[in-house]
Write a structure and sequence with these properties.
Structural class: mainly alpha
Distance between the termini: 50 Å
Largest sheet: none
Helix content: over 70%
Shape: elongated
Number of strands: 0
């Protein structure tokens, strides 16, 4: 396991520490969770952008009934 240092000014340290306490988490857990959420958000945005582009090139849509029929449901 590695250790990463983050430099915070007094205001940042106070705000982040108070928030971590309010959430009942350590600063380390809070920072890790926040970074994971940021990465997930960026991946979601990338997939959405790709889906929008794909849909522009392939605009066909199907109703629920059509999908059921195609799947034999």
């Amino acid at each position: 396991m590695s250790i990463v240092s983050i430099r915070l000014n007094e205001t940042e340290e106070s705000i982040f520490s108070e928030y971590a306490t309010f959430q009942g988490k350590s600063l380390s857990s809070l920072f890790k969770e926040s970074l994971i959420e940021k990465i997930e958000d960026e991946l979601d945005l990338k997939l959405l952008t790709e889906a929008i582009e794909y849909n522009k090139e392939h605009p066909e849509t199907y109703t629920h009934e059509e999908v059921k029929q195609k799947l034999g449901l």
